[in-house]
Amino acid sequence: MPEGILIDYNDGRPAMAITAGLRAPSFCTSFAGYGTGANQFQVNTPLTSGSTVFVLPTRPVDVQEFADNQTWIVLPIYMTSVTRNGDNGVTVNGTNRGNYQRIPNWAGTV
């Protein structure tokens, strides 16, 4: 875990340790395109051990149109949660009103 910033000028003054408990965010990857499973999007990227994952969606809803039993369906598929896969990436989970098993077209940043 990070311990802060140590500033030591080596000029006789005491060293300064800044330990505010804050962490610097780091960019891992962007993702866009069609998901890897029904109402899911797998994002494979290395993550730092012990870090907190933050996903910023840029396209959190995918509206799909298709015919079902001779009825035209307009179906929004939206992100609902993110599951961390150890240090190997995340899975973005979603759902839709009709509980159809569709492949979403989402985008975002990890």
Plain-language structure description:
By secondary structure, the chain is mainly β. It has one domain (28-109). 0% of the residues lie in helices and 50% in strands. It is built from no helices and nine strands. The protein has strands at 5-7, 16-18, 30-34, 40-44, 56-59, 61-68, 71-84, 89-96, 105-109. The strands form three sheets. A four-stranded antiparallel beta sheet has the order 4-8-7-6, with no helix packed on it. Strands 3-9-5 form a three-stranded antiparallel beta sheet, with no helix packed on it. It has a two-stranded antiparallel sheet with strand order 1-2.
User: What's the N-to-C terminus distance?
Assistant: 20 Å
Written as H for each helix and E for each strand, in order along the chain, the element string is EEEEEEEEE
Number of helices: 0
Shape: rod-shaped
Beta content: over 45%
**Poorly predicted runs of 5 or more residues:** none
Q: Name the helicity range.
A: under 10%
- Summarize model confidence as the mean pLDDT: 87
Tell me the Rg in angstroms. Answer: 21 Å
How many domains, as an integer?
1
Q: Specify the structural class.
A: mainly beta
For the largest beta-sheet, the strand count, sense and barrel status come to: 4 strands, antiparallel
The counted number of beta strands is 9
Read across the widest sheet, the strand sequence of neighbours is 4-8-7-6
